[in-house]
Prior knowledge:
alpha/beta, five-stranded parallel beta sheet, five-stranded mixed beta sheet, 20 helices, 10 strands, 52% helix, 10% strand
Amino acid sequence: MDKKKSSxxxxxxxxxxxxxxxxGIYRKLKEAKNLFLRTREHPVVGQLAAEGVAFASYDDxxxxxxxxxxxxxxxxxxxxxxxxxxxxxxxxxPGHPLVAxxxxxxLLEKGDAQSVQIEIMGGQSFLDPLFARLKIDxxxxxxxxxxxxxxxxxxxxxxxxxxxxxxxxxxxxxxxLTLMEVLPDDYPVxxxxxxxxxxxxxxxxVPLYELDRLDHFGNLSLVYVPPAREERxxxxxxxxxxxxxxxxxxxxxxxxxREQTHQSIRKNLIEETYEVLETIDDEDPDAxxxxxxxxxxxxxxxxxxxAEDGYFTVxxxxxxxxxxxxxxxxxVFGEKHADDAVxxxxxxxxxxxxxxxxxxxxxxxxxxLAGIPRDLPALMYAYKLQKKAAQIGFDWDDVAxxxxxxxxxxRELREASExxxxxxxxxxxxxxxxxxxxxxxxxxxxxxMTNKKFKRRFSYIESxxxxxxxxxxxxxxxxxxxxxxxxKHREKGGEV
Length: 496
């Protein structure tokens, strides 16, 4: 014969005093032989004690652990142990058992595994009196969030947002700092404690930056954030960016944006990418922030065009990227290990090969030079070609051979006919790229450095002419070369 399951009956103490409890729950509390409370800090508890109801509470557990997660795990462990020992117990929590009660969720998860039956009875949650007190219609959309584990990306400014479990000023401070990532510092928020409880209710609306200065946070406290109506707040939301781009492309939008196609703005994507690179080279974070926005705009436009044609949406782009990042980092999100960057890259390459095979790409019969974007700048394309070829042994053995190849190509260029000069110049540049690779230098970066140096020294010549009140027509190469050497000397001396 099967052993009878132990049981835990979970009751909600409601959001107010004893008069607001349903009679069935009141009777269960009165009749319970083994009554356990998550906390005694609730208006009903003192009234039950006055009526002679005996109980045990877990308030002491809160003092034993550093995190709420650990507290809840320990409470559940003790409850399951008590049920196994005593057979049937009653567990009472503030509000409704299924509203903002992590211990209840843990009991539901673990009860079956330990042959403990979990039964839930109702109770008024704090939401009903809160909606009534603040005159909120939840049909407009609301979010209920946990103040002990709040994240900025959970906060949607368009919703009525209720942040529960703001037990003390420390949690209130964390909530404040998190909300400041989404909302202005002076945004009005409401702190509410013991809503609907006569003689204990405290409701105050303050600017966000003053939230943690209030003095009535406790077990019955929460924070209410009203929906944002100001456009400046929406500027930080990705959803608003998507909406703006859709409007620009709509019949009521911008004539120029409506006319664009993937092909017509193709060059813009390249230009914006190079403008981002320029801010990186200039070490200018403010400019980088702006230029990354311009680059993101190109991605949004291409995604919007694809969505209009029924191919994909920007959410598909994000989903594909997230899936790929997780899949290609099994040493972070899976069970593989990578002790250094070399192992991590090996994992990445192995997974890329598996992905190609899954798509039906015959990697074994593919050219060794496959996979290089054909629209890369020629210098970068040459560098990647050579790296690919070197991986299978098609490479010089010694850097001296590379220098010799450069000298050979230089001679051939000097001797080339006018018809062949472009080809011979390309051969020389290709050989110089090879040298850069042997020296472990990026030729694109090296040339960019020289371009900047040229621009800097030429600007010095322009400044000297401006000081003298003269134009380029009023000078000669000899004088300009003198200033060039002067700029070079000042650079080496650290003056410019």
